[in-house]
Amino acid sequence: MIYLDYQATTPLAPEAKEAMLRWLDGPDGDGFGNPHSAHRLGRKAGAAVEVAREQVAALFPKGGTVVFTGSATEALNLALRGCDPVRAGKAIAVSAIEHSAVLNTARALRPDCTVLPVDRDGLVHPQASLPEGLGVLSVMQVNNEIGTIQPIAELAERARARGALFVCDAVQAAGKMALVEADLIAISGHKFYGPKGIGALWIRDGVELEPMITGGGQEGGLRSGTLSPALCAGLGAAAKVALEGMDEDNAHAAAMFARGRALFAGWELNGSAIHRYKGNLNIRRQGLDVSRLMSDVRQVCFSAGSACASESGKPSRILAAIGLTTEQSRASIRLGFGRYTTMAEFEEGAGLILEAAKGQE
After folding, report:
1. Taking each helix axis from N to C terminus, what angle separates 100-109 and 72-82, rounded to the nearest 10 degrees?
2. pTM value?
3. Would you identify the CATH topology of the domain 14-244?
4. What DSSP element (H or E) covers 268?
5. Cα(271)–Cα(282) distance, rounded to whole angstroms?
């Protein structure tokens, strides 16, 4: 099996797995303690959580606090639902290509929320029109379907000039590039070689949030519930490895992106070729039947869009936002690759896809 769907999830890094195993001990070990207990086993587990918090914090800008969550979706909901401007009834603006965790939450909070358009390259214009009374602007750093890198610095500055908070979904950016200066930043462990079931929200010093989950008051009262030391340790280890190997990882992805463009010569690239994370190759070919292609190439794991929307059967709203027709959207595929993808298996997978696509001519 050849795995080319790194935007959906990444393989667990061996270092993350090793870090987790220490805290999955059975009754004969000493790693199963509740990290919120005051006894010896609890203090050991609690110390592991705090080490992981420091490792994860290194991904973010200085001057903030890391709160562990169960996912980036939870983190984004905490950021949007819990911030003062939203609770005060101020306006929300989001980009047209936000993940559903942001777009659907924003619409649930403000049915009239402003949706900022993107251009053909999949980029929000830095001078996009913002609504009066803006309280929150939320734009992702890297899009999950087409890999475009947004002009976050300029947008965040405009939000600050309005006295608004800037929320950033950095799920596809974390561990791959420097994270932007924002007020609230969400990440997910399984998108950068960490475990599933854990994410984090970075909260800039001075930003106040109301909790979404109340109970025992864990995570500074913002996210009650017993933390998993194993998940936290795995996330921390993944963050450490990502930071140490970021340049090497990015060079590897860029080499495969370039090779992919050559192999799929004649296919159209969806989204900017320049302002883009190079581990994402979203391409289309006129007349391609992607459903048939995926059925014919079952030994290669690739995508026709976001995993979160794969069951809807609808054309990608991200591709529609950049101006593609329904026919063009349905003729698009996404290839995602990264640290553990070898050039040989990438070329083999691409060859199988190309052979099956040729059979449709």
Report:
1. 30
2. 0.95
3. Aspartate Aminotransferase; domain 2 (3.40.640)
4. strand 268-269
5. 8
